[in-house]
């Protein structure tokens, strides 16, 4: 509850503080919430007022709360955006973490697991043995007391070996505890690193259609939060689970040696605990998954609002965003509260059963002592062993809750890490540089986006872009011009027909070579990385020298403005290049495309977002850049279109007219109308 309030308060602060520093502050606050929550826990220890007590009573109806959650309608307020409603319905996919997945994660670090398991196992064995030594010590002490009462003095010799054994056991226990915690930490960190890399690698290679359907915040949450949760839960589950399980089994054996009758009675209760545990597990696992999904939805709202803070401000949507965030955080809180209460009930119930066992054992044990079947030392061993079992089982139930969270988090990560990218993206041929002409042909291409299969975008499109020529695509908005670029870049594959480069089907070519060395793409709103100008340009060709970077910047008409900055090429451009003007960003993007010297250049409305002066500068950069290359231009402005060697008008998913500007203007058909309407 407090956690959710903090979230909302911090979010409110960010929405109302104008500086980007406040956003950085918020990002830090969100990432450091765990220690904050820990410190806030102390807050809970304060005396509660009546209102708070009443609120807390929500937890009391645990069974009701768990069963009511699926039907819960939280925060139904008027005027709240429905921006995230599709996530609520769409994010209920069940994720599983199989033993095979787990084994594949552990296998490379099996050594650390084995040594950690051995150390934890030995610690548990010592924990079983120690009560027996304590029993021996009590018996030896009883002997001393007896001897003292008989002869007036006694020697400490009988207890010395037992004390030595005890001290050695405690020392070994401390050493082994250190070892297994260290080894498990190594294992956990390495596994988490691998898992994060595996997921990131997979995400980087997945088909573009995957990103059409998924939210980046969701992916980032799986990559960071879930991996972290999985790691810590895994460590706790292995260390405590193994130790406590061994202790339970070992102590049972010890009890068996001390009193078989009592042990039999204790064992009879264990299956009951397991059955209840399995039932609760089923219920809580689904609840845990829903709670984690809901938390992700809440983060999606805050992330989107903070990363689009200018739009939020421009539409005065601060309060709307806050209400939306509050609603989603409230929902997450209810689910997490129910989950916490569920785990609490499970632990409470288990404790009740376990304490029942202890009382019964003690009661039965008293009978045996009365009958003279147990010594004082045996009684001591019996008590400590029974208590160890009780503590171990109580610990097991806590570990169960942790394992549950870890399972859900791990399953969410593995769900995406296991998605296979299309086979066609691997391997393929590379056309040698000297024999690459750069002629592109679209032959009867049909295409629909995987996320919207009912909407045909390209419908048997034919187009030839001769090598070394500039071809301009124009047509009304939404007719598929940018889609053609996406197909050329092989972000998607045509449903029918083919696209060729120098007569070779694109699907037979190496994608890395095609995108990395052959095609240079300059889009309408280029995104820069928050690093220096030089590094942004070098992104086009990571091996480029400083001279090559400067040459590309000069070609792109960017060198003079870069040199005018105090730090020149080392100037940091800010998030997504926010510290530069649109025209400057665009010219750096052109330099980034040119630094790899691509034979084919694609300009996707590269100047349409610029003012006249910036457009003039960018256009003169582009005119130089286009020389000697095959160029595909998507443009609306007459000045860009009319200088092309060929103009194609796209309509209804096809090329409906093609020719030079003069030829098409003479015909006075679709092109002339389009030019008149877009450039009037
Ligand atoms: N990722 C996507 N998933 C589903 N549909 C898409 C996707 N991208 C574009 N579309 C749809 O495909 C159609 C063609 O879009 P495209 O961006 O290619 O048009 P365009 O001709 O470039 O338009 P504009 O000139 O406005 O940029 C549109 O109807 C659009 O809604």
From TrEMBL:
Work out whether the entry's keyword set contains Mitochondrion: yes
Alphabetically ordered keywords of this record: ATP-binding, Ion transport, Membrane, Mitochondrion, Mitochondrion inner membrane, Nucleotide-binding, Potassium, Potassium transport, Transit peptide, Transmembrane, Transmembrane helix, Transport
Record localization: Mitochondrion inner membrane
CDD domains hit by this protein: ABC_6TM_ABCB8_like, ABC_MTABC3_MDL1_MDL2
Query: What GO biological process term is on the record, naming one?
Result: regulatory ncRNA-mediated post-transcriptional gene silencing
Membrane-topology descriptor = Multi-pass membrane protein
Please give the chief subcellular localization of this protein.
mitochondrion
Q: A single GO CC term, please? A: perinuclear endoplasmic reticulum
What SUPFAM superfamilies has UniProt attached to this entry? ABC transporter transmembrane region (SSF90123), P-loop containing nucleoside triphosphate hydrolases (SSF52540)
Q: What GO molecular-function term can you cite, just one?
A: ATP binding
PANTHER family referenced in this protein's UniProt entry, alphabetically: ATP-DEPENDENT PERMEASE MDL1, MITOCHONDRIAL, MITOCHONDRIAL POTASSIUM CHANNEL ATP-BINDING SUBUNIT
Which family would the database say this protein is a member of?
Belongs to the ABC transporter superfamily. ABCB family. Multidrug resistance exporter (TC 3.A.1.201) subfamily.
Its name, as the record gives it, is: Mitochondrial potassium channel ATP-binding subunit
Q: Which organism is it from?
A: Pristionchus pacificus
């Amino acid at each position: 509850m407090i956690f959710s309030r903090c979230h909302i308060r911090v979010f409110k602060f960010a929405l109302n503080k104008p500086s980007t520093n406040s956003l950085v502050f918020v990002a830090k606050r969100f990432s450091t919430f765990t220690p904050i929550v820990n410190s806030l826990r102390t807050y809970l220890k304060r005396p509660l007022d009546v209102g708070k007590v009443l609120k807390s009573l929500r937890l009391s109806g645990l069974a009701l709360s768990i069963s009511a959650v699926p039907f819960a309608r939280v925060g139904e307020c008027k005027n709240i955006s429905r921006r995230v409603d599709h996530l609520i319905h769409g994010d209920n996919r069940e994720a599983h973490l199989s033993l095979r997945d787990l084994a594949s994660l552990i296998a490379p670090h099996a050594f650390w697991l084995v040594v950690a398991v051995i150390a934890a196992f030995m610690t548990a064995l010592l924990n079983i043995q120690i009560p027996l030594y304590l029993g021996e010590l009590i018996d030896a002490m009883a002997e001393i007391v007896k001897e003292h009462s008989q002869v007036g003095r006694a020697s400490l010799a009988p207890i010395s070996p037992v004390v030595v054994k005890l001290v050695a056991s405690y020392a070994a226990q401390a050493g082994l505890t250190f070892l297994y915690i260290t080894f498990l930490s190594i294992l956990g960190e390495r596994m988490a690193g691998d898992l994060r890399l595996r997921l990131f690698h997979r995400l980087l290679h997945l088909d573009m259609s995957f990103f059409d359907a998924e939210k980046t915040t969701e992916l980032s949450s799986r990559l960071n939060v879930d991996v972290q949760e999985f790691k810590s839960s895994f460590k706790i589950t292995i260390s405590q689970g193994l130790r406590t399980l061994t202790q339970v089994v070992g102590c049972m054996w010890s009890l068996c040696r001390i009193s078989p009758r009592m042990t039999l009675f204790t064992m009879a209760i264990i299956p009951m605990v397991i059955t209840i545990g399995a039932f609760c597990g089923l219920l809580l696992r689904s609840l845990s998954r829903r709670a984690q999904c809901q938390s992700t939805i809440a983060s999606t709202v805050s992330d989107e609002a903070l990363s689009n803070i200018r739009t939020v401000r421009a539409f005065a949507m601060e309060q709307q965003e806050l209400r939306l965030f509050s609603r989603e955080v409230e929902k997450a809180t209810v689910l997490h509260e129910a989950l916490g209460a569920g785990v609490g009930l499970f632990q409470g119930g288990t404790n009740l059963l376990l304490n029942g066992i202890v009382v019964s054992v003690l009661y039965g044990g008293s009978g045996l002592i009365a009958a003279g079947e147990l010594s004082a030392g045996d009684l001591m061993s019996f008590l400590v062993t029974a208590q160890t079992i009780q503590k171990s089982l109580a610990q097991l139930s806590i570990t169960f809750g942790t394992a549950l969270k870890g399972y859900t988090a791990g399953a969410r990560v593995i769900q995406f890490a296991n998605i296979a990218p299309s086979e066609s993206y691997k391997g393929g041929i590379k056309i040698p540089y000297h024999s690459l002409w750069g002629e592109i042909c679209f032959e009867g291409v049909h295409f629909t986006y995987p996320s919207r299969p009912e909407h045909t975008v390209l419908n048997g499109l034919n187009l030839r872009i001769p090598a070394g020529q500039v071809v301009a695509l124009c047509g009304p908005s939404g007719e598929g011009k940018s889609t053609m670029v996406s197909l050329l870049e092989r972000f998607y594959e045509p449903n029918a027909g083919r696209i060729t480069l120098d007569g070779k089907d694109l699907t037979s070519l190496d994608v890395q070579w095609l995108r990395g060395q052959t095609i240079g793409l300059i889009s309408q709103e280029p995104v820069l990385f928050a690093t220096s100008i030089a590094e942004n340009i070098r992104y086009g060709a990571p091996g480029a020298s400083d001279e090559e970077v400067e040459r590309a910047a000069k070609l792109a008409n960017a060198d003079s403005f870069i040199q005018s900055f105090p730090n020149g090429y080392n100037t940091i451009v800010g998030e997504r290049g926010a510290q530069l003007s649109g025209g400057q960003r665009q010219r750096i993007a052109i330099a980034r495309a040119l630094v790899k010297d691509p034979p084919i250049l694609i300009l996707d409305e590269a100047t349409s977002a610029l003012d006249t002066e910036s457009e003039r500068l960018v256009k003169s950069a582009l005119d130089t850049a286009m020389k000697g290359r095959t160029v595909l231009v998507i443009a609306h402005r007459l000045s860009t279109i009319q200088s092309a060697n060929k103009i194609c008008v796209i309509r209804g998913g096809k090329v409906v007219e093609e020719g030079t500007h003069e030829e098409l203007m003479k015909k006075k058909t679709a092109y002339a109308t389009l030019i008149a309407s877009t450039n009037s």
